[in-house]
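User: I'm curious whether this sequence folds into something compact or stays loose and floppy. Could you predict its structure so I can see for myself?
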Amino acid sequence: MPMPAPPSSNRGLATDESIDRGYDHDECRPDKSPAEEDGQVIAMLHSFAMPPRDEAANGNGETLDPVLQPYAELEDPGSLYVSAVAVYPEHRGRGLGRELMAQAQARAKALDLPRISLICFEDNETAMQLYRRLGYVEVDRRPVVPHPSLQYSEGDAVLLVRGLD
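Assistant: Here's the prediction. I'll summarize afterward.
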C-alpha cells in the first residue's frame, strides 16, 4: 500500500504491481517494498509471513550453520517477519523507516497475521530506538556469533515483536 508523499516531494513507495515476488503462496510470498525519490530507490523493507511452527519445523535433520543458529532460535512463527529495513545514509532522519514499518503493519493486517516480528542487533542503537518508539517489545535475545559478513560482531541479536492494533 503506497504511502502519500509530502506535496513538495517526488518521493513515494512502490505499488504492489511494481514489487517482484518469488513464492507461490500469497501468505508466504516476500514483499520487497522500496521507497523511491526521483526514480531512485532510497530505502527498502523486506518481509514475509513466517509459517506456523508445525510448517516451519526442520524435519530433514540438517544441522544449521552456527552463525545462523541464534537467528533460527529467535523466529516467531505465525508473524509477519521483517527480515530487512534499509535506508541510504543520506536519506535517514526523514521518516522513511517509520513509513516502511507502517507498510509492514498494513501487510500483516491484510494477511490476517496477529503481529510483526524482527531481529535487530542490540548495538544498532538508532534502529532499536525506532522500533521501541513504534511499540516493539523485546521478547528474546541470543549472543551474536561473529562472522566477517556481519556488521556487528559483539552483543546480542534481539527479537522484537509488536501486536497489531
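Summary: The helical segments are 53-56, 69-73, 96-110, 125-133. The chain has four helices and seven strands.
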